[in-house]
């Protein structure tokens, strides 16, 4: 059994994001390319975001700290600490309204 502090990981990733020219940092904390389930801690500095991308399977975004907006071409959802957003099947992107750290969980389709 493995144990990880998401709060400590969030702190590390937001510090790394603040140092990065892209304003982003990420670390996979469970799973990977060879697994069905993958969980990644992603930090985004305020005003930064991800490119629009396809949903690779069933996915959720859990906000650990800060505020984010998950958007598709037709709608958006705002999230704050403790919120869980189910990622739609449509192409979507994530934008940090303020410095934010999320846990992105995906179960990849075969």
Give me the secondary-structure topology.
Layout (H helix, E strand, L loop, with lengths): L5 H14 L4 E8 L5 E8 L12 E9 L2 E4 L4 E4 L4 E3 L6 E4 L3 E9 L2
Antiparallel strand pairs: 1-2, 2-8, 3-6, 3-8, 4-5, 4-7
Q: Which key phrases capture this entry?
A:
single chain; 110 residues; mainly beta; Jelly Rolls; five-stranded antiparallel sheet; 1 helix; 8 strands
The CATH architecture: Sandwich
Report the principal-axis shape.
globular
Oligomeric description of these chains: single chain
Q: Main sheet: which strands, in order across?
A: 1-2-8-3-6
Report Rg: 13 Å
Percent range for helical residues? 10-25%
Q: CATH homologous superfamily?
A: Jelly Rolls
Q: Mean pLDDT, as a whole number?
A: 94
Instruction: Extract low-pLDDT stretches.
Output: none
CATH class: Mainly Beta
What does the main sheet amount to?
5 strands, antiparallel
CATH-defined topology: Jelly Rolls
Number of self-contained structural domains:
1
The arrangement of helices and strands along the chain is HEEEEEEEE
Total DSSP E strands: 8
Which range does the strand content fall in?
Answer: 35-45%
Helix tally equals 1
In whole angstroms, how far apart are the ends?
26 Å
* SS class: mainly beta
Textual characterization of the structure:
With 110 residues, the chain is mostly beta strands. The chain has a single domain (6-108), classed as Jelly Rolls, CATH 2.60.120. It has 1 helix and 8 strands. It has one helix at residues 6-19, and strands at residues 24-31, 37-44, 57-65, 68-71, 76-79, 84-86, 93-96, 100-108. The strands form 2 sheets. Strands 1-2-8-3-6 form a 5-stranded antiparallel beta sheet. A 3-stranded antiparallel beta sheet has the order 5-4-7, with no helix packed on it. The radius of gyration is 13 Å and the shape is globular. The mean pLDDT is 94.
